[in-house]
Amino acid sequence: MVMRLSIIGCGLIGAKRAAAAGAVQLAAVCDLDLSRAKALAAQYPGCVATAAPAEVIALADIVIVATAHNALCGLAMEAVRAGKHVLIEKPGAIRSADLEELRRESRARSVRVRIGYNLRSHAAMRKARELVDVGAIGAPMLVRGRYGHGGRLGYEKEWRANPMISGGGELIDQGVHLIDLARWFLGPFASVAGEANTLYWPMRVDDNAFLHLKTASGAVAWLHASCTEWKNLFSLEIYGPAGKLHIEGLGGSYGVERLSFYKMLPQMGPPETTIWEYPGADRSWQTEFDAFLQDIAAGRESQPGLEDGIAVLQAVEAIYQNATA
């Protein structure tokens, strides 16, 4: 039996999710702007368009929620309480407490919930994780990450600049990706420090965030998320005692996706270098959704799931609380 998918939120991300639906049936799409929902539904035969979330939830086995931050968790909760599996876009909520409630509800109904941290599903990132898992660099001891874009004209007037809708600025937008990736490679963080600053854009939220995170064993992550990065940038370096992995680029305006492996030699000096490049279309959305279907079929907790989403938002909250202290 083919599973039915509904998508709430028909913007850029909702359209990417629809294109990555694969073997499932796109049954319905929903947006407050009905014309946008109709435009997306028209690309998929038999797909229903509506402005009412309850209608698309009723038609689905799986619901993807791809809205502004303030609406994510509430809509996901409606779907979970209706017994549906949910893929909820990052950060999943504005407050970690909301995700904790969603976790309780999903467990009570035995449905799967995945947080859409799709950067884990990029080919270079998956290859890096494979190398870490086989001990190619030894136990990771340091992650250094940078992720940023340069905004656009009128950026300060968009919903991301409104704290009531976004929950914050660059930290809760792109910064959460860096926190999630750092946790994925290093493990849970025992201490969180940093700051969120507004350096350029005339808005009430941060445009730069700087984080210093540390695990109980002493592994460290240094992270910088920015929307004053005038040339789009993604860079994640993972250091171990036996080598270093460097993932850079995400395709498109971020440059060709590339993984470099610098293997330390017994005599040290210049390392042995291996480079993998992944040109072409970004398949992370398809890879991520396929993994979610496998989670559902196996009845297993998704990773990244609600535990990951809660931990990331707790780190975000610690930084924002520090900024207002």
Give a quick rundown of the structure.
Helices cover 35% and strands 26% of the residues. The mean pLDDT is 97. The protein is built from ten helices and 14 strands.
What does this structure look like?
The chain is an alpha/beta fold and 325 residues long. The protein contains 10 helices and 14 strands. It has an 8-stranded mixed sheet with strand order 8-9-10-7-11-12-13-14. Strands 3-2-1-4-5-6 form a 6-stranded parallel sheet, sandwiched between helices. A hairpin with a 4-residue loop joins strand 9 and strand 10. Helix 4 packs parallel to helix 5 and helix 5 runs antiparallel to helix 10. The radius of gyration is 20 Å and the shape is globular. The model has no long low-confidence stretch (mean pLDDT 97).
Topology:
Blueprint: E1 4-8, H1 12-19, E2 25-30, H2 34-41, E3 48-50, H3 53-58, E4 62-65, H4 69-81, E5 85-89, H5 96-109, E6 113-116, H6 123-133, E7 142-148, H7 163-166, H8 170-186, E8 189-197, E9 208-215, E10 220-226, E11 233-240, E12 243-248, E13 257-263, E14 272-278, H9 284-298, H10 306-324
Parallel strand pairs: 1-2, 1-4, 2-3, 4-5, 5-6, 7-10
Antiparallel strand pairs: 7-11, 8-9, 9-10, 11-12, 12-13, 13-14
Helix pairs in contact: 4-5, 5-10, 8-10
